[in-house]
Amino acid sequence: MIGSFNRMMWRLFYLPLAEVKNESTMSEFPTFISLSHSPLSESEARSLLQDRGCGAHVLFVGTVRSSSQGVAVRHLEFEAYEPMVHSVLEEIAEELRTQFGIRGVLLFHRLGRVDIGEAAVIAGVSSAHRKEAFQACAHLMDRLKQTVPIWKKEFTQDGAVWVTPTP
Amino acid sequence: MIGSFNRMMWRLFYLPLAEVKNESTMSEFPTFISLSHSPLSESEARSLLQDRGCGAHVLFVGTVRSSSQGVAVRHLEFEAYEPMVHSVLEEIAEELRTQFGIRGVLLFHRLGRVDIGEAAVIAGVSSAHRKEAFQACAHLMDRLKQTVPIWKKEFTQDGAVWVTPTP
Amino acid sequence: MKITVLFFGVARELVGERQLALELPAASKAGDLRRLLAERFPGLDSDLAYALAINEKFSGDDRQLQQDDVAAVLPPVSGG
Amino acid sequence: MKITVLFFGVARELVGERQLALELPAASKAGDLRRLLAERFPGLDSDLAYALAINEKFSGDDRQLQQDDVAAVLPPVSGG
Fold it and tell me: Element (H or E) spanning D67, and its range?
């Protein structure tokens, strides 16, 4: 299980060197990122985030709804610019740690076809205190939807469309 | 598993009749409440909250930290006024549904001794949209700490104290 | 009239009991119960900002008590 | 100079390819790449408010391109 997280090492390759000013800008706390074509494991997410120094753990699970603006959804498909997902998420994680003082950050996202009721995304944070944990996890989801290079195609009874963000 | 949730029926006994003005004030969505002397199951919490009409599920897990204001904590003990926990939580759940438009509401809380690293509380909500889910779950935790009749005793190297809320 | 009083948390430890049966004069109110408790149990006075529930509802001091009511002494809560 | 261009989401479908090798004049900038793409692919113009990444970093139109750069056409994202 943990073996699948060699991707934690992505940060070494994808954070542009200019931004790694010194050792202290690299967080001592982990960022767990996984892009997966198979179902996401919530229990894996929780055990990765578990931290004895943290009393607060907030997890968001986004599942595929059976309708979107009144139209019946059949399934979704996701694609991503994978290496850039990792580098953008590492930057977001550092932003969360600076703004909210949280520790662990996690984002699991499905790729390819995702059926109704399945989890498309799991976002999580761990923190000493709960208010910061809620704020940071909500902010992580906001940032995901603003800047992380992942695209969703919605397959409905009326055909298939690439979803564009509502302003 | 589900059999342990005959407590959902508490609402029938503990909501004062004067407040049940008509059928429509009783939510059609479930409130899951459990007070337990044994470890809380996050997977049970998640499967109870799962709802195909909801795209957003937020779960808060509060675990026992190994230190509190710099003092090493050995363990905690909780006690509750159980029937009143149920009636107060039902009122909070209706408040959340009115304010945030969420659907499912869940609160699991440990009683008795809880050791370091264990979950003392799991709070969860399900909703069509994520912003409301984050706000409602944070609010549920705020209300828990303000008005739900549960008390915590902290056992440290210096002795044992009943925790009083910080204003 | 006879009522039952439940104690929780620090109040339970101050009183040394989870539950007591108390005899109160007819037409007593919740505030009268507070005064009786403060007389009998040092600590159960203005030092402890506790709430009273009558029959599992938070109640103010002018709440009328009745025979067989269940009162509960609820110190500031600290769940979660 | 030769660069690689990656396409995602609706841009990938408009172009019909995941990836193209393009020849650009020396000293071209990201903005020049935008103009070239708009000429060659109907739809990859101001109708699609896409971002450009160069070597996996979001980049403005005045970003200088170099031989072997990897550009990416990123339509508005919609993860989650």
Answer: none
